[in-house]
Design goal:
two-stranded parallel sheet, alpha+beta, four-stranded antiparallel sheet, 10 strands
Length: about 210
Amino acid sequence: MNKNFERWGMPRKIKIDNGRPFVNMRHRDTPTLAILWWIGLGIEVIQNNPASPQENGAVENLQATLARWSHPKTHTRIEDFQKALDEAGRIQREVYMVSAKGYKSRISLFPELKTNTRVFSYECFDFQRVEQYLSERVWRRKIRHNGRIRFMGKEFHMGRPYAGKEVSISFDPIEKLWLIHDADGTLLNQSKREIVSQREILDFASR
C-alpha cells in the first residue's frame, strides 16, 4: 500500500471490507496495525458492515473488470500479470469514457489522480492522531471465567468475581490511561499499560 501512496499520493479516505488482511476477524471492531498506520497518516478509514459487499459495489465491479481485461489465467509470470494490470488500470483511468458522466475519462473527471498534493512520507505519521482516534471509541468485552479480558493482543486482570460481567474499554488521551467500566459506569480498572506503541506501528509499516 505504501508503494501506491508513493506513486499516487495519499488518499483522504480508505474504505475497507471486513476481511483479511486489514481487519481482525475475531474482533472486527478492534483496529489493526494497518488501520492505525493509515489513521496516523491522516487518512479516514471507513469500514463496511459485515457481509455487505454492496457497500463497496464500485470496487467489486472494478475487480471483475480488471480480471476480464487482464486475463490472469493466461500469464505464467507475475511480472507479465502486473504489466497487464497496469495497462488495464491505465485504460480505466485515461481511455475508457464513462457514459454516465458525459463520455468523459476518469482522469478528466478526477484530475487530482495525477495532481494529488498529499505527498507520502513516513514523517507524515503522527501518533497523536492515533491516540485521538482511540479516544473516540468504546469497546465492549465480557470478562472471561479466569477474571481476565483480552484486548488488542494484551490481557487485563479484572479478578474472578467479575467473571461474566460485560465491561466497556475506553482511552483517555490526556492521562494516557485505559479505562474499564461496568455497565453502570463504575470504574473497575485503569491502566497506563501501552496497548500499542508508535514504534510498533512504524515497524509494521516499514516491512
